[in-house]
Amino acid sequence: MSTKEKIQEEVDVLEQESNLNEIVLFNDDVNTFDFVIDSLIEVCEHTLEQAEQCTMLVHYKGKCTVKTGEYKDLEPRCTKLLSRGLSAEII
């Protein structure tokens, strides 16, 4: 008769608490698709494809999260989007 021994391992999991925020971009009737796409590429460092997808989501859904990160990184980016006449906020 063979016996199988079960070993239970304890694993410590280190959870890093991070306070991630998001820049949410809102739809408006003023800015063109191309302007919004260019702004997302320049300010949020999106690829062309990311910027196009976010722009479409903003247009059809009314808003879209365009950047996630720590507040200190997002604040200047959001300010740049606002200075370009886009509607955005950090949540």
Automatic annotation (TrEMBL):
Keyword Protease recorded: yes
The protein, known as: ATP-dependent Clp protease adaptor protein ClpS
GO molecular function: peptidase activity
Sequence ranges assigned to domain Adaptor protein ClpS core in this UniProt record: 18-83
SUPFAM superfamilies: ClpS-like (SSF54736)
Swiss-Prot/TrEMBL keywords: Hydrolase, Protease
Pfam family, one: ClpS
One GO BP annotation of this record: proteolysis
